[in-house]
Structures are given as C-alpha cells and as structure tokens.
Amino acid sequence: MEVERDQWGSKIGFILAAAGSAIGLGNIWKFPYLVGENGGAAFIIIYLLSILIIGLPTVIAEVLIGRTAQKNPVGSFRQLSQNSLFWTAVGGIGVFAGFVILSYYNVIAGWCAGYVVESVKGSFAAINDPAMAGEFFSGLSGNPLWTLGFHALFMFMTVGIIYFGVSNGIEKAAKILMPLLLFFMLALVVRGVTLDGAQAGIAYLMKPDFSAINERTILLALGQAFFSLSLGMGALLTYGSYMSKNDNLVNCSLNIVILDTFIALLAGFMFFPALFALGLHPDQGPALIFNILPSMFNAIPAGGFFRIIFFLLLSMAALTSTISLMEVITAFFTEEFNLSRQKATIFLGGVVFLLGVPSALSFGPMRDIHIFGKTFFGVADFFASNILLPLGGIFILVFVGWFWGMKKAIPNLLQGIQGRSNILLNIWKILVKFVAPVLVLIVLLFKIFG
Ligand code: TRP
User: Against a cut of 0.70, is the pTM above it?
Assistant: First the structure.
C-alpha cells in the first residue's frame, strides 16, 4: 500500500525551504572568501553568469524529476527510467552523497552553534588579534568533548525538525528561520557599512578587476554556483517531490536561485566593508569566519552583541541546509523500507552522528591520520563536493536532456504554467542538453586533476 505523501502547504513554503537548503555555509562562509581571493567584483560577475548558465537550468531539471515522480531520489530515477538499474543507482549515489555531506557539514554547523555559546559566555572579550583567535579556535575544534558535543546538539536539532514531517516540520522551520536570517544579515550589513572607512570595502565589491580572472577563477565560480544551489545529490529533487503539480515550477526555481544569490551577495556586503574599515586585507581565505572574525568584533561598537547575532545567523543558515540533507535520506528510508518517519529519523540521526565522529576528530586526536594526504574530514569534503556532486549533476542533466528526454520532460515542466515562451524553452533545452553538462564535466575534471 502506498503511504499518503506529505506536501508543502504553500508555494512560498516550498520556495523558502528550498532556498534554505541552498543558503548555507557556502553562501556566508565560502562565497565571500572566494570573492576576496579572486578579484572582488570581477569574480562576482563570473559567478552571476555561472548561476544563469548552469545554476538555474539545473535547478529546474532537478526539481522537475522530483515533482514528476513524487518520490525520493532512488524511487524517482527508478520510476522515470522504467526500472533501469543504472539510473536507479544514480539516485543511490545522491542518497549516499547525502550521508557523506551531512556527516561533516553537521560538524561545522556544530561549531557555529558552539560559537554562539562562546559568544554569549564572553569567551572572545579578551581576544584582540587574529593570531590569538586562531589559537582559541584550534583549542576548541581540537577538543573532542566540545566538537562532539555540538555535533550531537546540531544533529538533535536537525532530527527534531525532520521528525515532524514536511509541512509541519521543514516548512514551519523555514518560515521562521529564513526571515530571521535575512533580518539578522541586514542588521550586520548596516553595522558594517556605517563603520568609518567602510567605503573602500563597498568599492571593492562594485569595481571589477578583470586582471584577476583566469581559467581557474572561472572554474571556481562554476563549482561554487553548483555547490551553493545544493545541486547534484537529490536535495532539490526531494523537496520538489513534495511540490504541487499546480504550481509554476520555473517561477519557483527562479525565486530559489534569486534568494540564494541575493544572500551570497549580501554576505559580501556584510564582510568586506567591515574588513576594510578595520584595515584588513580582503583575501583572508577559509580562516575568515572562525579565526579572524571573532576578534574583529571587539574593535567595533556593540561588537559583542553583533558577534552573537552573526553566529546565530550562521547556525540558522546551516540548520536549513542540514534538514534538507536529512530529508533526502529520510525520504529514501521511509519510502524504500517502509519505515515510519519517526523511527527513520531517530535511527538516521544516530547513524549520521557516528559517521561524523571521525570528521569531528579530524581537528584534534585524529589530525595526523591522513588518507591521500588529507584528514578524514578533508577526504569526505573533497570526495562529496568535488566528485559526487558534479557527477550527480551531470547525470541529472543527461537524464533530463537525453535519457528520459525533452519530449517527456517538457509537458511535465509546463504543468502549472500559464502561457509558454518557446524562446525560453529552447534556451533551457540547449543549456540542459549541451552547455551545462559539458561545463560541469570540465569542473569535475578540474577538481580531480587540476
Ligand atoms: N548549498 C549549501 C550551502 O551553500 C551546501 C550544500 C551543498 C547542500 N549540497 C547540498 C546543502 C545539499 C543541502 C543539500 O552551504
């Protein structure tokens, strides 16, 4: 017997939940440092083009698979491919990627929550330069009790939301967390741009320096567009499977992409004016958030307060992403093994927690255990975001463009859309069949061999 499937209560609920999946540490942590290391405004322009050329068309393709089949990634590919073993396995790669990504992403999310607690405790009050902050960070991330504790706490919050289902859990959480996130970010942007000397940071974000652009930056921008939109592992597919066939899929996808891009840009305006105002260089790299930023807040008026707000917003952005990862594997287990959602989430929460332990310890007791020259955490991240996601993305595009095919895809795409534009449809077709898969393949090869 088929279990009655939950659906989003509203179109805006779906958009906010999917945007919540997309908006995460990738937008707030990674995007700004990529901008800072790769030419500021020039990188932003390349990024926006990547979003347009591969981001949006792939979002549409991935959501379309889910909405048409109304199943988890494995079930969806199996159904639309009429039981092809190969395509079913492609869905399986997505679920597997979900496990891997969630296991280490949740560790970082836990740090964010841990930093909220440390900020409230006033732990940063006497930490006045980045070197000291770096030491403090190494101490915390290397402390098994601290990292594992917050890893567990974050898993508990994720499970706590998924437990209540799609409309009562994920959708409600997204409707509260997303507006709050935006509000907190705006507060920090205003704080940053009103500091003395912030002007230089704003100029950096507005004036492109094209001499900083080369093949490497273009590939970085393409890869970031892909990661930031949560593409390639069935997260948007799974969220799309709860979408009504009466809603306009293209319009929803456009909204998701615009929100994700807007928040990434806003993150730029949150960091750079403040960085320049405090006399720091823009190219701080991955250390920016946990090593440099906490001490920066001491130099600005009301910094202690804004530090708490900052780590809260970071935790909220991460939470809407961890729940979407958790939902992919939950949907798979409930539908394929006939488990109740409640049992599945508790079980999976435990499994993913354990899977994340070696990643959590990669900054402490296991920091010297290397596989292919990387820590366990490094391997998990490299394997998932550089290999599994682009590979999944190529499969999704080839599936929609060639195997399932446009003849079947387009009528399903048009369901819920009033009036059609043949020009836009043809552009989408060309991007999905030719342009996007080739570009993602190049990104994949560059990540492996580059
Ligand atoms: N998009 C998320 C971010 O920007 C990260 C991410 C990549 C992700 N793939 C995902 C999140 C799949 C959820 C599901 O941080």
Answer: yes
